[in-house]
Design a protein that fits this description.
This protein is an alpha/beta fold. The chain has a single domain (about 35-150), classed as 2,3-Dihydroxybiphenyl 1,2-Dioxygenase, domain 1 (Roll). The chain contains 2 helices and 8 strands. The chain has helices at about 45-55, 100-110; strands at about 35-40, 60-65, 65-70, 75-80, 95, 115-120, 125-130, 140-145. The strands form 2 sheets. It has a 4-stranded mixed β-sheet with strand order 1-4-3-2, covered by helices on one side. It has a 4-stranded mixed β-sheet with strand order 5-8-7-6, with helices on one face. The longest helix has 10 residues, at about 45-55. The two termini are about 30 Å apart. This is VOC domain-containing protein. It comes from Nocardia aurantia.
């Protein structure tokens, strides 16, 4: 067989069955990986700063071409980089969790933020609302609670 073989795969044919683990071991990093930061582009940093500050994020770095925010809980950060244009076909949705989604959405509406979808219960056991930031990035404010990481249909880990 030519070319690399990924872990968990095997050649097929001649009576050899392929076995692929649903939860392959994390062989690509020596330490557990965590999400640290998400960065989006903006054509107007002051406008982006105002919007994300309204969401409750706190600015910790401000330069002429970059903003970094600290999330209100946890140790993740969110940043905005100055760009000439934001692609119209942006396919990312950024999720921010809040304990009291309905109160947070009312607060944001009172501050002039418009929503594409007001808070609603979803079939995946979350309550969520959808909106866009001033540059058109899709955002989802939600409350998932324990169902975020441990839904009833979570796959069992091997081992």
């Amino acid at each position: 067989m030519k070319g690399p073989v990924r872990r968990g795969s095997a050649p097929t044919g001649a009576g050899i069955a392929a076995k692929v683990s649903r939860n392959p071991p994390a062989i690509w990093c020596s330490e557990p990986m965590r999400l640290d930061q998400v960065t989006v582009g903006s054509t107007d940093l002051p406008r982006a700063e105002h919007f994300y500050t309204l969401l409750g994020l706190r600015v910790i770095v401000r330069t002429p071409d970059y903003l970094r925010f600290e999330c209100p809980s946890g140790d993740s950060t969110f940043s905005v980089d100055r760009v000439g244009t934001v692609p119209a076909d942006e396919q990312v949705t950024i999720y921010f969790e809040t304990e009291d989604l309905d109160a947070e959405c009312r607060r944001l509406q009172d501050a002039g933020i418009e929503f594409d979808q007001l808070p609603a219960d979803m079939s995946w056991l979350w309550r969520e609302a959808r909106l866009r930031d001033p540059d058109g990035h899709r955002l989802c404010l939600f409350h998932g609670g324990d169902n975020r990481r441990n839904p009833p249909w979570r796959l069992e880990t091997e081992g």
